[in-house]
Amino acid sequence: MGRAPCCDKANVKKGPWSPEEDAKLKSYIEQHGTGGNWIALPQKIGLKRCGKSCRLRWLNYLRPNIKHGGFSEEEDNIICSLYISIGSRWSIIAAQLPGRTDNDIKNYWNTRLKKKLLGKQRKEQQARRSSGLKQEMKRGNGNPVVPADNNNQNPYWPELPILAPTPYSNHEPHFNDHSSIRKLLIKLGGKFSDDDQVNHNAMNPQFPADLSYTQQLYDNQSINVSSSAPMEETLEDTDAQFAQTQYDIDGAAGLQMLQGQSSFPAGLEQMVSSNPPRLDGLEFLLGDDMVNNRIRTAYGTESMIDCGEMTSLIFPPGASSCEGIIQQRLLQECAFDEPRYPGSL
DNA sequence: AATCATCCCAACCGCCTGTGT
DNA sequence: TACACAGGCGGTTGGGATGAT
Fold first, then answer.
1. Which chain B positions come under 7 Å from a protein C-beta?
2. Which positions 86-105 on chain A have a beta carbon less than 7 angstroms from any atom of strand B?
3. Which residue ranges are recorded for the region named Disordered (predicted)?
4. How many independent structural domains does chain A possess?
5. Do A91 and A41 belong to one domain?
6. What's the domain range around A286?
7. Which nucleotide is nearest to A12 (CA to C1')?
8. Using one digit for the tens of pLDDT, what is the confidence trace for A177-218?
């Protein structure tokens, strides 16, 4: 038995909304509100629409103060940095951009921002490649350098760093006690309540939107990287507890450091404190291995990557900003879709 | 002018989560 | 505790708009 439909599909109109439908919905909600029940709403006002469709229409189009198009550079930066931090959680990203809807941002990312970053990077790569070839020709053999290994999965951008996690070293984790975590949070401008819960509200909201801050932070701190897989599978209870604390801190710090001038709304803070930042969907940024596998120490326990390793994973050589990372990841993601390098045939 | 390709965005779909019973 | 239901979300798609040939 399948799931019950949310409405009678046969008696429901689909497709673009007419101005009359818009007017009906808008005037009703402005006068009466949604009544807390979207499913019942279309019947009340005589619309042959699914409740979900009404909700979407209101949220994405009819709601007051909605902005469409014309994303600013600053908004681009915020989207990029939040995408790095939390992935494709468009509703959360949208909450940071007043007047923007999750749908708008999602579309903007998929259709423009991604390509914009990709285009920039390709130009740079092309410039570097052609200058490299010229130099090679000058040196005398007259033959351009062609990757010898046709199985190379990334023949186009040989300079791209491998972002998959390197085998973990025997470094001691930097944050092996709560005081270390406190130090990090204090450094970040955080405060603690008595029960060691991070008080996100008290954290300094003045971090610059400047993306380089992200790198600064990674350069200075250890970061715990793990997937969203259940902790209990691999950890002792105490370890799991501690790891959860790290999750909370990383999530809060990660988001906090990426925000602009205003504080995150309470809902976001709650999300951060109760959910670790998921890496799902960030494969193209962090590498499949990083997302799909736990990073473990030689002892088989989940561990942290120290600042040097993390920096090299998150900010590989040549990636000077989050934009750089995204560009590089996008390029790797697209490498298989591209026609093969002519010389490698 | 006609055709084809690509871009863009509104809307849909189905899954997940939270809440009430 | 289990279930049903509505809301919310992210991924995907359909089709109009625009540009290229």
1. 7-15
2. 103-104
3. 118-153
4. 2
5. no
6. 70-337
7. B12
8. 333 323 333 333 333 233 333 333 333 333 333 333 333 333
